[in-house]
Specification:
This is Phosphoesterase HXTX domain-containing protein. This protein is of the alpha+beta class. It has two helices and six strands; from the N terminus they run αββαββββ. It has one domain: Cyclic Phosphodiesterase, Chain: A (Alpha-Beta Complex), CATH 3.90.1140.10.
């Protein structure tokens, strides 16, 4: 993944029509959640250890706040006709996709992934995907999280 593409997916929306976009931006701008203190929390993978589909960085910190943001986004986007994914929300940052190598992926290599490196999330962002581009995500609009503490 290109470093500019690192993010936590709050909700995957899929194909979005121009008609949906105006309403979507309106409902997202009405979300009122607090800024979040988050931290990196190791790494893992989805798929087999021989050829992982996704290598990810774990996230810890204010997961209650992150789950609240997720719930608010789901509720807001539902008003625009978007459907909630069936899989459970699991906060992570995708680092790499579709391992291709001559040898089995070295699972031990991720045991030294950073833990405790923190940041303050003070906004969430609506992004568009451009497949096969690098970076592949384009920021459409950012929405500040409520700055009252």
């Amino acid at each position: 993944m290109h470093p500019q593409d690192y993010h936590i997916t709050i909700q995957f929306l899929g194909e979005t029509t121009p008609e949906q976009m105006g309403g979507l931006q309106t409902v997202l701008s009405s979300i009122n959640e607090q800024p979040l203190s988050l931290k990196l929390n190791g790494a893992g993978f989805f798929g087999s250890s021989k050829a992982p589909r996704i290598l990810w960085a774990g996230v810890s910190g204010n997961l209650t706040g992150l789950n609240n943001l997720h719930a608010s986004v789901i509720q807001a986007t539902h008003q625009c006709g978007f459907i909630v994914e069936e899989r459970r929300f699991a906060a992570h940052i995708t680092l790499a996709r579709n391992y291709v190598g001559e040898h089995e992926f070295n699972v031990e290599a991720i045991q030294s992934a950073p833990i405790g490196v923190g940041w303050k999330a003070d906004r969430f962002t609506l992004m568009s995907t451009h497949m096969n581009a690098s970076p592949m995500y384009e920021i459409i609009e950012s929405y500040p999280l409520n700055l009252r503490f």
